[in-house]
Amino acid sequence: MAQIRALYESIVVQMALRTIVGIFASDASGIVDSLVTNFYVDTVDPATGKPVRPCLLTVRVTRNMFDEVDFSRVEPFACLKSFGAQISRSPQELLPVRPIVDFDMVDPRFVDKPQILAGLESRPNLAELSPSDFEALITNLFEKMGLETRLTQASRDGGVDCVAWDMRPIVGGKVIVQAKRYRNTVGVSAVRDLYGTVMNEGAAKGILVATSGYGKAAYDFVRNKPLELLSGSHLLHLLEEHAGIKARIEFPEDWEDPRP
Fold first, then answer.
1. SS3 state of residue 175
2. Per-residue pLDDT, 164
3. pTM of the prediction?
């Protein structure tokens, strides 16, 4: 039995490494800069008798990481672990790991991302952006910060303005982003709605970005939850740090925030 377990794990690991080597080695033009690979098995849950598809291995490898390895002399398991791979502790028992990226990156809600950052004037006023441009701005910003991002349709988006993927092993995953152009404090109901959307989408994290700020009830609610609240001051800091844009947020006196 021990030999069977070792053989099963060896097959999974070697298939993953062979896939990585095959893709990068065949990319003579150097187009592929980063590769994420998940390995699933279609089987039956012995406890329920129903079909299941656990992920047994997930790994992200960059071109630079690949070029540093002599694959003719490596030990497959050690090589994948050096890449930061997450490997099932018991593949033969179908014990799953969480994929770095779930590859649900094709969604009818997604639309093309306009490059709002590139067209901003010096010291732009974020309050003057249209709702769709503000959402695109947030999407552009997170892309500058190293995330894979998708912008959703302006309507019927299920409370999702942007979907992002953090490619880092273990701590990464799918991120749901909501953007609020508010002059006044964002109510806790908006934070609760975000949490519900994160759970419904099966995401690893939710981020609420607002031009204003949040009250104590909102911060109390996000405690110990996979949620992050970014205020207007945080947003301005991120724009300057990652996009080199010094923006401002100035609403007219007659501004009315959208109703929840």
1. strand
2. 86
3. 0.63
